[in-house]
Amino acid sequence: MPMAQLLVDVSRLELQKVSVSNVKPSGRNQHVEKYDVALLDLLIPDYCMPVLFLFKPHPGDQIGLSGSEFVRRLKESLSKLLVPYYPYAGRFCKTYDHRIRELLCNDEGVPFIEAEIDQEMDKVVSFDDFQPVPILSGFKFVNLDAGVFFHDKADLFLPALFIQATKFRCGGVSVNMTFTHMLADGKAIFQFVKDWSQMTLEGHCTNLPIHDRSLSHPVSLLQSLIPSGNPRESHVETNHSQNGHAPLRPDDKSLGGGKRDRSDEGTDNGGAPASLMDHRAVRQDCADAKAAVDPALAVRFPILPAWARKTLHVKKASVMKLKQRAMANEERGLVPTALDCIQSHIWRGLCSIPSSLDGKKGCVYGVAVEGRARMHTPALPESYAANAFVIAYTQPLEHPSDDHLTDASKIHDIVRSVNPESWPGQLGRTVGILLNGAAIQQRAFFSSSWYRFPMYEVDFGYGKPVLVTGSAACSSPLTGYAFILPPRPGSDFLASVQMVLPPELLQALLDNSEFRSFFH
């Protein structure tokens, strides 16, 4: 096994030459002034989802751009792209009524932070076992805390998108794009990045994004869905004991654990300038901000008090072995996808964790399912640039089945069960599981796949990215989760799995030799 990468202490790093500006649309087409959010925009309200792109041209690459020129081009092309993507230059605000949240399409602009860091990229970021580096995220410059899951201050107007570009001593550049999850799902986010890439290289984008939330399901459905989300009505057993969880052990730093990562605090570069975050001009567009109760609290789920993160790399042979066995068994009739194999393996591993660690036995496993076609009649356009997904949960699995293919088939079936008739019940069950995670007798866990997104195909003129990953430095829903990512260029693995769990549960998985054998 190769030597572990020696990284610097990121808590001691400081940014240099910081500048903060607003990138506004280069022109203005006629567009609506605001959108009421749709129901599917509120599955994870007030959460900011950072995605980190690392660019580092090889010495032999004919790039012909400096890092500074690269960043200048990014800003210039972003300004052009925000004309068709005008909601991405807007702000979210509370309404304190049945609409819950509102997206102001006010062309306020995308906060864009530029900075430098006097260090080599590969001494700051671990490519093999990525751990968040909040100093690269830009949260502090828009007056947000990277360690907080829900950003719901009463007077806060959330930028739909903010970006930090950081130049390294080695010539590498990180571009961290943080999207408010109420703005867009993974499919829409990576379409935006693809369009930005095309705008940078060609001066135009061929995709025409659709932003009209009225095409999707309205927030008014939420009230009818919450009662059906009772886990007991969905055959998920609950435990009303207040002592269902064993005490959490101190976080294991070798797993990237933490209660709150504050490594982006204490720098000397100040916060956002007043002009960037002055919302007096937009406050009049929202409802009375002095109301006592925020309706979003009804769907605010608990988060982990302590967590750990680990990135694992899937062996190609592990998945191929399962597929070959399925192809050899004609009676089975189903050859699982790579994602079926990976997600079912995680599910089986979670079921194998001793109940003595957390008072739970078995697991219900959720899969984030994209639903532009699956959940709408007529289908939403592929270019719908908002949220269209649901987390579909399996029935409880107490012990792994004797045959891995059996569990892979269950994952396959739950994904394909999502349709225009079934999704309301599945969404209601999801809400119930997320809200009642502590009371459910089984572990609840979900995964979101970015596996098929063209993350490594984007090119802004500085070479294709050497790493793309989710970079959230906050905790997770009480259930824990995983991102399934495509393989890094030049690697010999099939996919990467970035897992977030309570430290003791993650350590139990890593100590399970059968679980680990699936990975490099």
Task: Give a description of the structure.
The chain is α+β, with helices and mostly antiparallel strands and about 525 residues long. Helices cover about 20% and strands about 20% of the residues. A six-stranded mixed beta sheet has the order 1-6-8-9-3-14, with helices on one face. The protein has a six-stranded mixed beta sheet with strand order 10-16-15-13-11-12. A four-stranded antiparallel beta sheet has the order 2-5-4-7, with no helix packed on it. Strand 8 and strand 9 form a beta hairpin. Helix 8 packs across helix 9. The longest helix has 17 residues, at about 185-200. The radius of gyration is 22 Å and the shape is globular. The chain starts with 15 loop residues before the first strand and ends with a helix.
Mean pLDDT: 86
Q: How much of the polypeptide forms β-strand, as a percent range? A: 15-25%
> SSE string, helix = H, strand = E?
EEEHEEEHEEEHHHHEHHEEHHEEEEHH
The CATH superfamily of the largest domain turns out to be Chloramphenicol acetyltransferase-like domain
Question: What's the end-to-end separation, in Å?
Answer: 10 Å
Shape: globular
CATH fold-level name of the largest domain: Chloramphenicol Acetyltransferase
CA radius of gyration is: 22 Å
User: Class of the largest domain, according to the CATH hierarchy?
Assistant: Alpha Beta
Biased composition (Basic and acidic residues): 248-265
Family: Belongs to the plant acyltransferase family.
GO molecular function: acyltransferase activity, transferring groups other than amino-acyl groups
Region (Disordered): 226-276
